[in-house]
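CORE FACILITY INTAKE
Project code: CF-77B
Contact: R.S. (postdoc)
Sample description: multi-component assembly, two entities in total
Requested service: structural model of the whole complex
Turnaround: standard
Below are the sequence entries exactly as provided by the requester. Do not edit them.
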Amino acid sequence: EIVLTQSPGTLSLSPGERTTLSCRASQSVSSSYLAWYQQKPGQAPRLLIYGASSRATGIPDRFSGSGSGTDFTLTISRLEPEDFAVYYCQHYGNSFWTFGQGTKVEIK
Amino acid sequence: QVQLQESGPGLVKPSETLSLTCSVSGYSINSGHYWGWIRQPPGKGLEWIGSIYHSGSYYYNPSLQSRVTISVDMSKNQFSLKLSSVTAADTAVYYCARGGCSGGYCYSHYWGQGTLVTVSS
């Protein structure tokens, strides 16, 4: 079973800042199966990035993903007020979906 | 536009069985993809419960598999979750979602809005 560890747990930032979120897998995974989601309070997760680096439809280009093997990152180049939320990475396997524990990006 | 909608009781008594249904519109379950259930306890992260393929093959989270049953009803374009012998630890928002692969990439693109299930007497 693959375990995803996200860090840090919480980021306190100001609008306009740049930030990088980390997702580390317990073993090497295919980047094709690594996705990132954004979740706001009271809402379902929303797909941001799939294939480690491809933006989903309608996602602004201030969001970018990168990485391979066991280390993946989500970068938000310039935080907008609507970006303050919890972010989850996911390894999608047909027989098991694994989520990281999440990183909360909060307003400083 | 693919849409998923969870439905079921919002309150379940301890030791009873939690039953939820996910209604799918805009896409036929019989056309493919995996259909899964994920839960989120209040203030906590996402936990995958299990998934089922349109052919009926299924996969469950080992931590829950002794209590979980996921099934598909093609005629109604729905899939369902049953979780037996619930306790307060099963209190969570339950989401249904569609998973699958496109262009070589695999992810869970479509999610229901979620439904809160509370386990309490």
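Facility notes:
- Chain A is about 0% helix and 60% strand.
- Chain A touches chain B at residues 1, 32-33, 35, 37, 43-47, 50-51, 54, 56, 88, 90, 92-102 (CB under 8 Å).
Invoice: internal transfer
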